[in-house]
Amino acid sequence: MIGLIVRRLLQLPLILAVVYTITLALAWAIPGNPLENPEGRQPPPEVVEAMKRQYNLDDFWTFYFSYLRSASGLRYAQETWRGGAVEDDETAPPPRYVFDLGPSLHQEDWRVNEIIAGALPVSVTLGGAAILIALVVGVGAGIIGAVKPNSAADLATLTIALVGISLPNFVIGTLLLLAFPVALGIGSVASWGRPQDAILPAITLSLPFAAYIARLTRMGMIEHLSADFVRTARAKGISEARVLLRHALKNAFLPVLSYLGPATAMAMTGSFVVEKVFTVPGLGQHFVTAVLSKDLFLIIGVVLIFATMLILFNLAVDVLYRWADPRIE
Amino acid sequence: MLRLAVPVLVLALALAGAVLSDHPRPPADFTFINRADPNTLDPQKMSWMQDFRVARLLYEGLVRNDPFSRDFAVEPAAAERWEVSEDGRVYTFHIRADAKWSNGEPVRASDFVYSWRRAMLPETGSDYIKLFMLIKGAEEFYRWRVDRLAAFKKGDDAAVLWSRTLEKFDEIVGLRALDERTLRVELARPVPYFLDLCAMVVFAPVYPPLVSRYEQPDPETGRLDVRSGWTKAGVLVGNGPFKLVTWRFRRDMRLERNEHYWDRASLNVDSIAVPSVEDPGAQVIAFTTGAADWVCDVTPSYRGDLVEAKLAYYREHAAEYERLRATGLDPIEIDRRLPPDPRKNIHTFPAFGTYFFNFNCKPRLADGRENPFADPRVRRAFALSLDKARIASGVRRIGEPPTSTLIPPGSIPGYRSPRGLGYDPERARRELAEAGYPEGRGFPTVEVLISRDGGHDVIAQAAAHDWRTHLGVRVVLAQKDTKIFRNDLKNHNYMISRAGWFGDYGDPTTFLGINRTGDGNNDRAYSNPVYDSLLDRAEDETDPEARMRLLEEAERILVEEDLPLIPVFVYSNVYLFDPHKVSGITSHPRAEQHLYRVDMLGDGKGAERPLALPPLAPDAAQRDESPAAADEPGGRG
Fold first, then answer.
1. A273 to chain B: closest CA residue
2. Nearest-CA neighbor of A195 among A117, A265, A125?
3. Strand pairing class (B30-33; B63-65)
């Protein structure tokens, strides 16, 4: 187990370097100049040129290596080594980050590190809540469906699951928004920070995950409920609840567990739509807006964060898998 | 099975902890939803309206405008008085003794020198750098700095270059702090609207001891390494009426009264909150549920219906409404005097901007074909065949006045707009025939370049319909992503494109300048020496009356003869606020909001006196009625 963790963590920087290279190559190819305003007044060409040089936007390879140097912490290490980062505090510039992800080209006052530091906890909280809801609802619905396949209850949960997968988030989100805060006066709009603010967006975000988990659970449960070991357990006179939870669910849960890795990474890096509809200050919006404004540093920053989370959650799932089922090597 | 429940429980507990530890603040006195989170709070860098709106609260220039005067009067702010030399070239400002930064330090004349010099440096990247070039020697200083930076080699001493730069600035630029409280500005030529510029936020000062810490010469390139960070809450020092207490990226912003502000007695609210709500539908919901007092840019797809509902409300109270309108009252004041009704919380006021179509005026198109739009007769034909009133009332549906001029009529005191070309399909066909395309025969397929979002597709479709029917030409739309759209404009890779322009200061040149030969914002590649020379002559003209006549003639050439663009309608700002509850939002056509004037009526704080523009004289009220306002009662209110 320790070997697995060490091996994966050693792979992490290599994978990130590959992801960085591909992302930068694609983002660099987006047409347009990130320093120009989409509308209205344009700065004089000399100013644009000066800014381009400042951010190394005039040469791909200069940008490639200079970003790699600061994002990997190499620049920080070098400057600390030379003593460049330590100055008296009266004239000292603001501290550099160890892993400096650069400035945002569009939101000029913010560095990518600050943007991610502000948005990531929000997305992690919301995504965590959504996954929790999805697990409880999805596994519950899956069990109900599997106990009596093709019954009314099964059909109902299947239908709801289908709706959950097919209906886009913005429809469900807007409907919830119209139903609760607007029509009934329950909950809040355009506010974030109180526990009740997370409820509606978490439910919206959880639905597709819940639906998928419900289908996975139902399939697994149906398969295992007709398996020999369950028949044996029933024949021994074990109570039905114990059969369901202890024997069938334990095995049916394993596919859900492997789905949870990417699902949690997805949920916790934010959703553009849910964040827009409920005004959640999360990370998801940047995946879209950064690309539209060709904000190179921010594009790379959020992609690297997403890649890191995906790798870490998959690792966590693999560890949990072995812990839950020691037969797996 | 229990093993699996453990991580789930841990996750649940962590979530509960995270949620409970994050406390929101108590509601502010006034909450408004800005169009988007500000791009920057650095006054010398900003150019977006949402940035200006907040920055006007945090900084104060030498002078400020009074948004509740008809002429948008300039009044003293950080400067208590000023003198202008006989020839209009030298301004001497006297900074008031009680002008203070938010940390209690006095505002000095040298702070303005520092801040304006920042704007003139190429590495600051100021979008408004051109306005600073009106100061004597600024252009030369800027060129000098650009050249020196280009010549900078590895091994040169960046600190030496920087001190040379400061010396050069003092040597040649006409900007000097005569003492702690006296600022002398020498202009390259007389600029009659210079005070209006000084009221713009880009001319507001930054606090040098703070900002200079973030701008150090970079030893490798010689440039100033301009770092962000000083505009954050808790760090930023401003001299405006409010100070920044919280700014969380794309989440919220909170401002509180600056206790060191010299005019603090005039403030009517203690705190202002700006939650970041970017979804148009959510913005409206936030207002209707009471989470926001003012939405400054209402853009959901159903806003036409909201405006429609208000017109229905006016029709229900037609007699009273017409009586009030005849007295020339500010539309906000009219709303206050009519019975309360949630339908009237939507307001459309004309903005200081125009929606238009660009023509590519180059002799050849980007692909090498001959460009039919190089011929002004063709451009006139396209302008004359466009039914603007139908676009404004049928497509936009928020009562925007159709226009035939680039400068919104009536927005600049002392300026008389030319007539422009109206809707005349008959004459349009004649013009096109004279250009060699009778009934549109032989005319190449017209491509109209538009950007995605913003409803430009439907406007372009309506225009294409007119051009097809009246001129007999083939028209196709090319919708592109913003960045590509921008690129095509820059490279003149288009025939006709959508466009818009908002003015920055109260002078016609804020609109006319973009059509000068070679101007950085001349996407049309329009070039007419007569037009340019009129603008040049206006620059040298010292008599304000004669100057206005020259500029009027320039615009006449633009909108009656040459038509490098087709003005379509004057933009409107669509607001949501309850006129019985909120005071301090102005309906002035300059369309700038100075939120330190805001007063929440009925909260027991402040003056509790509802603000409005003074009534127009009754005959002026008649004249003010644009055709759109006449057939749609309250179209502008």
1. B279
2. A125
3. unpaired
Task: Please write the tens of the pLDDT for every residue from A137-191.
Answer: 999 888 888 888 888 888 888 888 888 888 888 888 888 888 887 777 776 666 6
Listed by number, the residues of chain A in 216-275 with a beta carbon closer than 8 Å to a beta carbon of chain B are: 245-246, 249-250, 253, 257
C-alpha B378/C-alpha B428 separation (Å) is 9
Largest CA distance in chain A: 85
Q: Rounded to 10 degrees, what is the CA torsion of A128, A134, A135, A136?
A: 110
Phi, psi angles (nearest 5°) of residue B449:
-90, 125
Check CB contact under 8 Å for A114 and B281: no
Compare all CA atoms of chain B with the CA of A105 and give the residue at the minimum distance.
B39
Q: How confident is the model at residue B22 (pLDDT cuts 50, 70, 90)?
A: low
Sole residue written with tokens 């008649």: B622
Of B15, B249, B285, nearest to A115 by CB-CB distance is B249
| DSSP strand pairing (B294-295 vs B496-502) | unpaired
CA distance B631 to B392: 12
Smallest CA–CA distance, residue A41 to chain B, in Å, is 6
Beta-bridged to residue B79, according to DSSP, are B95
Low-confidence ranges of chain A (pLDDT < 70): 83-95, 187-191, 328-329
A124: CB partners within 8 A, 6+ apart: A268, B18
Quick one: pLDDT at residue B66?
Answer: 96
Query: What integer pLDDT is reported at residue A232 of this predicted model?
Result: 87
Cβ-proximal residues to B262 (8 Å cutoff; 6+ apart), any chain: B96, B98, B99, B100
Question: Does A33 reach chain B within 8 Å, measured CB to CB?
Answer: yes
Question: Domains along chain B?
Answer: 60-231 (3.90.76.10), 242-349+572-629 (3.40.190.10), 353-571 (3.10.105.10)
Which residue in A125, A281, A293 is closest to B19 by CB distance? A125
Listed by number, the residues of chain A in 182-201 with a beta carbon closer than 8 Å to a beta carbon of chain B are: 182, 185, 188-195, 198
ipTM of the complex: 0.79
Report pLDDT digits (tens) over B283-320: 998 899 888 999 999 988 899 999 999 999 999 999 99
Residue pair B629/B635 in contact (Cβ under 8 Å)? The answer is: yes
Closest Cα partner for B27 from B600, B608, B634?
B600
Task: Express each pLDDT in B568-623 by its tens digit.
Answer: 999 999 999 999 999 999 999 888 999 999 999 988 888 889 999 999 876 554 44
Query: What distance in Å separates the CA atoms of residue B46 and residue A151, rounded to the nearest whole number?
Result: 63
User: CB-based burial of residue A323 (10 Å sphere; 0-12 exposed, 13-18 middle, 19+ buried)?
Assistant: middle
